[in-house]
Amino acid sequence: RYTTQSPILNGLVIDSSAGTLGNCSVGFSAIDSSSNPYIVTAGHCWSSLGTGIYQGSNYIGHVSKRHYGNNADAEAIAVSSNTLLSNKLYGTTTLLTSVQVAGNDVLGERVCKSGMHGDSCGTLLGKNNSGYWGANDTWFDNLRVSNYESSSGDSGATIYDGKTLKG
Predict the structure, then answer these.
(1) Which of 2, 16, 114, 128 has its CA 20 to 30 A from that of 26?
(2) Are 40 and 28 in contact (CB under 8 A)?
(3) What are phi and psi of 82, to 5 degrees?
(4) 134 pLDDT higher than 80
């Protein structure tokens, strides 16, 4: 997960310095309405727009959009080419072929995480948790709670089940 990969697979490690052990994980690839390519991760990973991001020893792009607080903790890393994007999970042959519509998740459903510390699956336990979180005590609403194993560095990781991207 730490070595340089191309394309950038879901669940790989990313950081603002080249060749480090990482800070966060790749969530998924995205393309905006103007066909600009992005990698999506957690919004609390880097607070400054323009921060350069590396995967392994390769510079992949910069933080270009950030939504942090209320109902979102996400940021988009603008990458140079669509050829860097992938719908494949690291270490597997699994291709994510569908997306669960926001709000269509159901308590008790299976959820898996692919990030810096590997893959782990559990159950969705809560959908409407709210509270302050993070270094600046930012308020969040409608947080999801699950019981898969997660550690520091898994922030932004791919949340999925089977071939369905969940977050």
Answers:
(1) 128
(2) yes
(3) -65, -20
(4) no
